[in-house]
Every structure is written in C-alpha cells, then in structure tokens.
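WARN no homologs supplied; continuing
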Amino acid sequence: MTNTPSGVLLDIHTSALAGMGSMPRHFERWAALAADDHHPDADLGEELFRSLLVGGDDALTALWSRHLTAWDFAEEPQWGAGSQARTDERRTVAYERLRFGAELRKALDEAVPVAKVPGATVITRGFTPWYTAERAAARSFYWTAYEQKLRDKGWSEAAVAGLDQASRAVVERLTDPEQPSARQAKGLVVGYVQSGKTANFTGVAAKAIDAGYRLVIVLGGTLNLLRAQTQRRLDMELIGQENILRGADVTDLDSLVGVDYVGDDEDWPKFVRHGGRPSTLGAFDIERLTTRDKDYKGLAQGIRALEFEKRVPTRPLHDPANLHHAAARVLVVKKNKNVLTNLVKDLKQVHGILGELPTLIIDDESDQASVNTSDPKKWERGRTERTAINGLISKLLGLLPRAQYVGYTATPFANVFIDPGDDMDLFPSDFLISLPRPAGYMGVQDFHDLNSPIPVKERTYANSQEKAHVRGIYDSTGDRLQEAMDAFVLSGALKLYRADHGVAEAAFRHHTMLAHESVRQDDHADLALRINSIWHQAGYSSAVGHARLAALWEADFAPVSAAQASTLPAPSSYDELRPYVHSARQRIGSGGQPVIVVNGDTDRYFAQLDLDFDRTPNVWKILVGGTKLSRGFTVEGLTVTYYRRTTQQGDTLMQMGRWFGFRPGYRDLVRLYIGREEPFGRDKYVDLYEAYEAVCRDEETFREQLARYSEMVDGQPQVTPVQIPPLVAQHLPWLKPSARNKMFNAELVEIRSPGRPIEPASYPLNSTIAKRNTERWRPLVQALDTTPVSFSNPPDNSSTLTRTFTALTGTVTHGELISVLSQLEWERPRYFDPHLTYLRQLDGSLAQVDDWLLISPRLASDNRVDASVLGSAPLSLVRRSIQDGKSSFGRIASVEHRTAAQRLINEGAAGTDTKIGPRTGVMLVYPVVEGNSPDSVRAAVRNGAADPSKIVMAFTLIPPRSATSTDRRLVRFRAKDSRHSNEVTIPTT
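OK structure emitted
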C-alpha cells in the first residue's frame, strides 16, 4: 500500500468496511480503529474522501461500490428499517447508519448510483432460517473466489450483488446441512433462454459447498458436449486449478497424466486460483468424480472415493466437528440411463455414510428428460410408473435422505404440471424462484414491439424492435435465404471493422448463423446442400456480389446501426467496409466448407464436428440443425438466424429461440429471418413470429403470477408452490404450453373466448338431472318474446343467395345469465368450469359485458315440432343424436345460425349493428331431444308442452370481442394434486 493520501485512505477504508461485517455502522469510529495502528495521523475527514471520489479515484470508488451495492441489494436485513431493496430509501438508511453528511452522500450517489433493477421473485413455503449473513460470511471460501472471478470477467457490482442475492435465496431454502434430522427440499429456478442460469447454479453450488454440502451432483444435458460445457464452467470458475491438479506439477509432464485442461485449453491461465490447496489454507478441497472428457462410469478410486474421514468418528458426518473439515465431491453427469444407473448402483454399495451426507442435486434443463412422461391412465392400479431418467433421479433421492433437489429451466411449464401429491416426483414443493431478466440480455422483448403505443405506420428502426431486427419470410418475398447469408457475411465484416477500430474483440471471437427449418435429418442435408450451393455461387469477391452486399448495407445495416448503435464505430461507406468483407468471407469459408450440420444423436458424432466453442479459437460458420441446437447448446456469436420450423408446444418453441442471449458490441447487427406463412397441417398456415410473441406473453404471465404471490404477509408466505392457483397461460389455441406427454397432470382451468363461440357438448342424459337443468333455465326462456324476428345472412363463399331464418329473441343481464349457467350440471363434473371461470369475470373484473341477446331459432322443416318450455312461448325442438362411442352430442348450432350470431358480434364490435352494442353477447338457445327419428321429438311433448325431463337445454355462446383483458391470454392450466383426486376443488389456502 502506498503512503499517498489516497493509498492510506484506501487501506483504512478497506479495513474499516471489513470490520463492520455485513451491515453499515458508524463509519468514523470504525475508520479510527482501523487507522490507529498504522496511520494514526491520517486525515479521516469527509472532505478528503469526497474529493477523491469526485476526482475519480478508481480503487476507492470500486471499494465503496462493492459495499454500497451489497447493502442496496440485501433482502429484508435487520438494519434496513423496512426499506425495500434497490431503492433510494434503502441507500438513505445505509447513509444514516454510516452517519455521512449531505455532500459526501451526493458524491457517493454520483459515483455509485443505486441500481434500481428487479430482484428475483420467490414463491416459498415456510422454512427455518439458518443461512444468516453471519454464517455465510464465516464460511465463504469458494463463494469469495467465484465472486472475484465474476468481477475479473467484467461483471458489474450490481450484477454480482444480484447473483449474490438470487443464489442466497436458493441456498437459504435448502435444509441446514448441520441439522440433526434429515429433510429434503425441492425447488425450481426459472431463468430466461440462454440468460446465465449456469452462473446462478454455480453460485448456489459455491455457497452450498461453503455451508457444508459435501456431495454435489449436477445433471448437465443429454449429450457429453453439453455435459462437458458445464463441467468446464464449474472447473474454471468454482473448483479451480489447485483442485484440478491435486498436487501435480505443471512443469512435470509425467505428473500431468490424466489431468485435463493443462496444455490443451488456452484459457487454463484464466481458471480460478486459490493460492494453494484449499485444505492448506484453512478451507477444504473439492474432489472431482468426473472430468471434462470423462462422464461418470464408476467410482475411479472405488467406493473409497465416497469415504469421508471424520475427525470425531463417534459423531455423524453432518456434525460441524466433522463436516467443515471433509472434502467435497462434485460430479457433472449426463441425463443418460446407463450413467445414472451406474451412479445409483455404486451408491447402493456405500453403507452408512449416505444417511449422513448433505447432498445437492442440480438439474440443468429440468423440464427435459427429468419429467415423468408416462401416461397415468396406463399405470397399474396403485402403482406409479416412471420413465427412465425420472425413475433414476427418484432413486437418487431415495438413497440420499439429505439430498436437496433444485431444477433449472427457462421453460418451466412441464415442471409446474408435475403432481404435487407424488412425494417421490420432482414438483418444486418448497420454493419456486423466477430470476430477473439480466442487463444486456436480448430476449423476446427485443424482437417484438409488445404493447407498443406507436402506430405501425410510424415505427422506425429507432423505436421498433421488429423493424430493426426481424425480417419476415412470406410467399411474396421468396425464401430470403440468399439475403440471410449476405447479412451473415456483412455482419461478420462489421464485427471485424469494429474490432479494428477499438471495440473489444473478445465478443467477436465466434460468428455464427443458425438455419433451422425442420426436425428431420434428411431435410437438414438438403438445406446444407442448398446453402453450400448458394455460397459458392454468391460471388462474394465479384462485382455482382459486392453490389448486392452494398445494397443490403445501405438499405438495412447502415440505418439500423445508426439508429440502434450510434456510439459504435461505423464505416462511412460500403467501400470502407469492403476489405473486411474479404476477411469475413475467408473465415466463414475456411476449409472449403461454410456449413456444419448439427443433428447427430451420439457423443462420437459431436466429437467429429470440431464445434467446441471453448477450445476452438474461432468458429465462423453456418450451423444447420434441429433439436440438438434447440436446448442447452449455446451457439456462441449467433448473429443471423433463419427459422422456419413449426411446433405445437410452446416450451419447445421457446427453447428453439437460440437467437436470445448476450450480444455485446453487436446487438444492432442481429437479424432474425422468420417464417410468417409456414404450412401447418393440411390446409393451415401459421405465423411463427406471432407464435413467439404468444410464447413471450405466456412466459410473462407466468412470471407475473409468481410476482403476485411472492410478497410476504405478516412475515408469512401468502401461498406455497403447491397452493399456487393457475399459473400457465396459453395465448394461441394451437400452441400448447408443453408436450402432451408432459401434461398428463395439467388441468384446464380457464378458457377465454372473446368474440368466439363457446359450444358445450357434455350434457347430462339422465332424465332426473335433465329435468333439474331444464327448470334452472326458467328465467331465460321466459325472457323470450313471443314475436319472431327475422335474421339474414348475405351471399358469401358458401352460397350466392341470401339466407334467412326467424327466431324468438330476448335480452337478459349478464348476472341473470351467469346465475343460470352456474347452476347447471354436466355429464362430466366440472366440464364447463374453464368457460365459467372466464364468463364470471365479465362483470367488470376482467372486462364488462352488460347483457346477452338470446336467440331461439325456429326450424323451417315441415316436421318441425314446437312446444312450450316451462310456460314459455312455443320453441322449436331440435333433434340431435349422440356421437358413436361418445357420451356427448356433436355440433348443436347450425352453420347458418352461428354465422348470423357471429356477424352480430362482429358488427357490434365495429359499431355498425343496431341490434346489439359492443358490450352485448349472443346466446343461441336450443331445446334438444336426443333421438334418431322425428317420432322421438314428438314423444317429448304432451299438450303443447315439452317434458322437462326429456329435453336438454343446449346453447352456443359468443361473448363480445371486447370481453378480454390487455394480456390477451386465452387458456390457463394448473397442476392436479393426487392427494385431492376425489375432491371437487383443490384447496388453495
């Protein structure tokens, strides 16, 4: 430390802040204590401190940034006086405890502004607090090293503090590893696609190991490529050089046999260094039971690898006297049946210690392979059947009574649908944590103009994400594949230009394009061949090729970059960029092959690809693939995406959004070429861009629901994960939240149908119930007028003629209608509940419906039978038959009647109809008789009145188009709970 005033003050402040611990205290006193021994005459006045801050003293600013930010982010600290984290009020409380003056506060606020970013959202059941700030600080060897590694990587203090709090929220909800009694906790952490979930679970592992967890099992993907990525990340940022070398001398080649990274990984110098074997520094070592190249096959050192030396043999391992001197073991394993079977088999041979061993199981991409996808309807009675990986994880939990399970995913819907009542399954019964969207992340919101108030015609490259980044593929545009490849070459040239003009080139190490059209491998080969042909005919070194690139530069990249990245260096013309185009073309075409097809199913296949972003200096390629590129696999440097694959599962679609992620220095260059009119089924077409927007809304609705219930009331959670009401929404009817085999336990809770028909079919046929239902209709049928009204349908695609029919009509209030519908019984209990949940909210809580126009059509047939129903005017009885093999009718309403009703709704919304207004719904009413001939209808009538026990009052409802909320969600689900399988409703309190 220098003896300059700034150096002396930094020394004093460092000691004082360290002495204060985790809370702000009277700083002048602590600074005086720190100065007493070595700097008794130092100037401790606020003016020197303030002047150094204003003068830009980097070291002093960094020190205070670290501590102020940590205090800003602390969740509900005892000293916080009830202030919310990351607010000016919290910073003021800290200043008051430090007893700083107004001028110094002002200088600190300018040097270290409050990071007003969202924190993690936590849904939790009650837990016993054990991971206190004092306990965390007392044992923090690996967390401290990891925290410093993040700073060395360029993380801001706010980002580090955010990760600190988010990982703490997980660890404090695990069971205390020193606790005498065994208890398992299960939780789920929800991040964003390619948003840094690995960083969070690395922080969780570091803190858990520090706290006393001695076996950490990370389930890392279904391929060794993905598993090796995770292993390397943990080795580099958590485990560190000394634990990898285990005493080997890096200068002695013989001692390095079997040691990975040394000599074949250029980032080895960047691996964490602890300054010696942790066990010699007062901490403990970490022993790896898997390596970068070797997944778990068996305990390399035999069962002894899981033998823990106890300092006090008479006490269990979890006793503090033993726990904090024992080495930790870490495994990163594939979700592979053989691998997990070997692990389970070996653990079964370890006797005694498993019941004493605090274990943490981290399940990366926990909705993939881990979820039980077997159909409960096919299980033997009283027996739960599990799919392979789900069953093996359950066995791990059974063998390790002190194991804690934490799943990580960006698409949690399958996890939410797990049966909460199956204690051996993986429902996150203890906590569910939603991570905030990190700074610098490009997600769905960066490609869509969600709820933008700017009219479409007024949107520009500066105010529209869609206009800046998205290029639609329509029938009218052709396939735009050549243009996408040109954009890839051009954006690569711009990266090289920027690197040559002062922008840090680390972010440009890899430059990739992803082409994803199909799940079929034959299609991948065809697409790769097309791209190769286009590449070799593109003429990127010819006048024609440069003219094409120049046109794209002037029409697209130049104006977008000027609007979105005006502070980054930019060429003044294409001619200035042209030399870099040559370099980009050479990199992409190196080896004569610009394309890599990524679609194999084996580790051997991926080993041959030379697609290791960690060990390959530069990957500048076009990647063609499908599923293998859609989950867990991080495509580094992804700049241009060409996407045309359809799917019916929202979580699958979301995971295929590889264009999400961090794009430092080239956000403005990112382009998404996406199908807007893709074939779907026989005669349908879908807009994939619209589908992604729907997925985004589903995801945000889920997060909003979490936030709604996360606030504590009187120190207690409002709801626990098991008690959470419906969480998962569906904004497009054809795009379900998850695959069908992951939704066996999903219960449909609400169906919203603004401006769309609701036509139930599961009417009860039991005469007693039918009579009760009919009598409940009395208020509605008596509201029908006696004078028929004429309705007409003008000529359309179905007919060149105008079609007319007459009907009795009446109007009832929304409350009167809901009163009747709420009393009805159905063939399948609760069948109509999802619709009723929606309709009940049209009293103004979701949207406002004033009244309903009832229409009871009169049939034109000569065999028409009219009859009074409960004293009503004569109504036309309708004959319908039960569908073969089913217990319900087919379609009730005729096409003509539905067409007329729909036209009323549409015209009411447009304000062009005089019959109904924009807040009026339409109900088609049909007294139905089940039978196969006209005689069955006549048999239901006596003396002009219909027998209430022989008719079914059927209906079709069309709510007004205004009957929805701004979030536009259409469907919601929740998870069934087998513990309440015989109850009408699942308890929520």
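The first helix runs from residue 5 to 20.
OK
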